[in-house]
Amino acid sequence: MAVLDSILREELQRLKALRARYVSQLAEIPSGSVVMKLKGRHRYAYRAYRKGHKVVTDYVGPEASPRARRAVALLQKRRKILKDIRAIEADSARLQKMINAK
């Protein structure tokens, strides 16, 4: 049983380190979402995010610009990281229950 406990604790430590790495990556990525607005016949990208109780929008650029594509890619990466963090937290809770169930 000691071997199994050791493996579970090692996996829990690995998950904690992975979560910390994801949280540090998350701090570098802006929050919010990209909103496309139609002005005349052209579409422009804006980053929308909350500042206190207000929703603030910042101009990013035309829809097809590299800057707009980069903003969309970064925010998609942020969503993926948040999803991964939630999965890690669920796995960590499950492992902790297994360790405590002795």
Topology:
Elements: H1 2-28, E1 33-39, E2 42-51, E3 54-62, H2 66-100
Antiparallel strand pairs: 1-2, 2-3
Helix pairs in contact: 1-2
Describe this structure in words.
There is one protein chain. This protein has 102 residues and is of the alpha+beta class. It has one domain. Strand 1 and strand 2 form a beta hairpin. Helix 1 packs antiparallel against helix 2. The longest helix is centred in the last third of the chain and has 35 residues.
Give the helix proportion (percent range).
55-70%
Overall tally of domains: 1
Helix and strand sequence: HEEEH
Radius of gyration: 20 Å
Secondary structure class reads alpha+beta
Strand order of the largest sheet: 1-2-3
- Helix tally? 2
Mean pLDDT: 93
> What is the number of E strands?
3
Main sheet? 3 strands, antiparallel
Proportion of beta-strand residues: 25-35%
User: What sort of overall outline do the alpha carbons produce when their principal axes are compared?
Assistant: elongated
The parts where pLDDT drops under 50 for at least 5 residues are none
Terminus-to-terminus distance = 9 Å
Can you tag this structure with a few keywords?
single chain, 25% strand, 102 residues, 3-stranded antiparallel beta sheet, alpha+beta
